[in-house]
Amino acid sequence: MRARSVWPARLALAFLLLVLCSASLLLWRLLESDQHKRLEEHVGYQARTLARQLENNLSIEVESLERIARLWNNLGRLQQAEWAHEANMALQGFSAYQSIQWVGADLRMRWLLPLAGNEAAQNFRLTADHPNYPLAMQAKNTGEQRFSNSFQLVQGGRGFVLYTPLFLKDAQGQRQFDGFLQGVFRVEPLMKQLLDGLDSDEFSVQLLENDRPLYSHQAQGSLAQMPQRVALKLLNNHTFSLQLNPTQALLQRLNSPLPQVVLGASLAISLLLVAALALALENARRAEALQVSNRLLKIEATRREAVERRLRDSRERLQLVLDLTDSCQDSLFIFDTESRELLHMNQATYASLGYRAEHFAQLLRNDPEQLLPGFHTWLKQARSAQQDNQPRIFQREMRRRDGSSQAAEINTQLVQLHEREYLIAVSRDNRERLALEARLQRLSQLDGLTGLYNRRFFDQQLQAEWRRLRRIGAPMTLLMIDIDHFKAYNDALGHLAGDDVLRKVANVLQECLQREGDVACRYGGEEFSIILTNTGLEGGEHVAARVHELIANLAIPHPGSPQQYLTLSIGLAVAEPANEENPGSLIARSDQALYQAKHGGRNQTRIWNAAQASSYSPSEPPVT
């Protein structure tokens, strides 16, 4: 009887042990899966970061070549020396260039920098059988930049070409194709520059073109599993992608022993629990004291299991919080303000500045001014702002590892805990917002029709330069310029033609400016002004003569003018800001000289002098 009663209980215990072991294995598998997922997310994040970095690097060079093309298209074909200067600036700023070239309208090589290493390309001509010929023609027809697929360079090795079409304006204002500004990139230097900051023992990197390897950086111990591929968007070209494979070293660094610890603990607890139950069954007939002991043992085992479960949950939640902060684009760091020891920082804190985590922590502890110029002043400001309940968002500059500065908007919070002061800082790179504000400020100062500075900027600039020249005791010259018979021109040819003339005159005035600080403005209607700083009468006369010369060279027909061509009248006045209170008198004198030029026959420059000033009558109607 007893045998029949014991075996069902033993089978039940065996079944319970099997269930507990299965649950432990399931929990271990879940933790292993979560750890594997975090590793894939880490590799994916690195792949996306590298892809965006490569796109951003090439985007900067696209903008650099586009800026040279705008100079070419707006000012006409550049002089070779000026072109070489601009090209050398681009070459110095980006080591992945093989060369920058100008291929003429006949698709023959004209200019090439640098010559060293590119001798084979000196007599190059882009022919219809070249693989990039259709793409180049597409760039020519659309007027937009195009990025080629990889091909075999005549200099050797594989590379890419960024085709930027160039145009000239003929006498009728029509655009004429003037060849291509070509930026040639070699694959290997481009990828080496991208991988400079990559830990060589963590990832293997491949650059793929149409899923075929174009460049490969193999790290020791690279794994074939968990590849992460990210598509690259390079202007018109979407054939490239980056693929990252983790290494065994990265896997070992990110792997946590927690799953094995949990598995061992769970199996141990399961065995203890089953052993306790078996012992309880075997001693069921023992004294009451032993039964009480067994019940207490089971209660203790249950309590320990609950404690370990809570501990495991707490660890998982903590790890989740750390992973989420590492995925954040904003920097988060917490440190002791006295010792400057870091309590925590996310990956964006040091990676966005080009540092490793330990290097960032060492700089903050030993030389914070090197990391954040004005660190101690900023800390005092943060304390003062918190005491006065003032905003605690500061605009500062962080110093990157390469020595450059990065704008940072830092939100601070000081916390007193256990008689120590801690600072919690959230930093955001707001360079784009600052650049947008500067662009909006500039647009508010420009005249929409002519592209010159407007009257508002004229008033501000005149006041600012007046104060500056007063301090250094230098002269200022002001030219007031008016288009002769402009109303008659509008009446004869229409307002659209009048707007076109205003733009042409604005281009001439802008071309006549030779020095920094000199500005041309649209004063109002058909009237313009030029401010010449640190310039006396002789310099003003030279600029006025240059304006008349360029306007005459344009030979713009004017049916309402006695000369039959468009002409300008210019009033010129010189002032010494050190001897006068404000620039209002300079404006009045140059306006009087303009009045004299108008009534003296137009198409001329008059210089203000006190003897002729009495003939100016502001009550008379204006002359156009």
UniProtKB/TrEMBL annotation:
Gene3D superfamilies listed in its UniProt record: 3.30.70.270, CHASE domain (3.30.450.350), PAS domain (3.30.450.20)
Known cofactor(s): Mg(2+)
Biological process (GO), any one: cell adhesion involved in single-species biofilm formation
UniProt-listed InterPro entries: CHASE_dom, CHASE_sf, Diguanylate_Cyclase, GGDEF_dom, Nucleotide_cyclase, PAS-like_dom_sf, Rev_trsase/Diguanyl_cyclase
Residue intervals of the CHASE domain: 109-198
GO MF terms held by the record: diguanylate cyclase activity
EC id: 2.7.7.65
Signal sequence segment: none
Sorted UniProt keywords: Membrane, Transmembrane, Transmembrane helix
Top EC class of this enzyme: transferase
NCBIfam families on file: GGDEF
UniProt-recorded name of the protein: diguanylate cyclase
